[in-house]
Amino acid sequence: MLSAVTVSKQTIEFRDSPQPTLQPGYALVRVHNVTLCGTDLHIWEDDYPTELPLIQGHEFSGIVEALGDTEDHGIRIGERVAVNPIIYCGQCRPCLTGRYNVCQNVGCLGCYSDGALSELISVPVDKLCRVPDELPLDIAAMGEPASIAMQAVNRGRPQAGETALVLGSGPIGLLATLYLTELEVRVVCADTEQHRLDLALEFGATETLLVTPGTEFPDAYQAPRLDALTDHCGPELVIEATGVPSSLENAIRLVASAGRIVQVGISPRQAAVSMKDIPYKELDIMGSRMSLNLIPDGLALLARHPEQAHALMTHRFAFADLQQAYQLMQGRTEKIGKILIQMPAGSAA
């Protein structure tokens, strides 16, 4: 079978790899679609804590081609599936308390072990998530990022009638906005790109705020608008989805007293965090990583909002053009949402 191997910094080789061996409790999935995210770009740039060479791809969908035993898992050969890529030990303290998404030995297909940029992949049957009939298989590849957004929102304990500020209107921020809107939370979105904010309105945002890098946020015009939306108290919930240090600093400054902040954007950089605001406001600051088996919920969210789901996927590349897809992500010369890689099986479907 053909696999795309990231062998070194910004270098991909297409190799003939042996087909995976079918084992009890596992399924062979014919990969049809893979979507790319910022983590994929960092791995390709060799700027991520994993070792190369590696077959990338952790957001994907396909069709079950074979099952390793006859036990009834509720999944049948020929079914359309998305896959939960998280690997966990089940023995450490986080796992034993139900927080396996932050397992002390956590892994992820396509990030720390070989993933889905290959024609076939072997995965445990319990990692398979059936795709709703009404959801196209290409859109189903975004079930994993949808689950990340839902995990972040759930961590924030939103209540109907509250106001949430979502910092960053990339795919995770937009999907968080969509989910918050379903929960009857009023959402204000902030981003540095106007085209992303335009899309945020389609995802349910009530108000958008354009951030000019290097200037005070919110500015003299934006601050009264945000005050009016929050009864001059600040938003009860802030979802930080950029990973930019100044954005977390803004979140702490702007959130209401007794408010909650969820940090889902990831960065190795350091933030200058106020040691006064956190105790004075008695804030809850929470991290959010991957999800607790929310891919089925993410697929359902996408199925309920087909127009938004299709709008999120802005570019499509053939498998053979994978290198160009990464170069597009790196160059940031176009308005990019999610990039889809159509595998040979997906292109032929």
Automatic annotation (TrEMBL):
Organism domain of life: Bacteria
Keywords, alphabetical: Oxidoreductase
Signal peptide span: none
Gene3D superfamilies noted in UniProt: Medium-chain alcohol dehydrogenases, catalytic domain, NAD(P)-binding Rossmann-like Domain
Gene Ontology MF terms: oxidoreductase activity
Domain Alcohol dehydrogenase-like C-terminal: 171-302
Cofactor: Zn(2+)
Domain Alcohol dehydrogenase-like N-terminal: start-end pairs: 24-133
One Pfam family recorded for the sequence: ADH_N
Protein name per Swiss-Prot or TrEMBL: 2-deoxy-scyllo-inosamine dehydrogenase
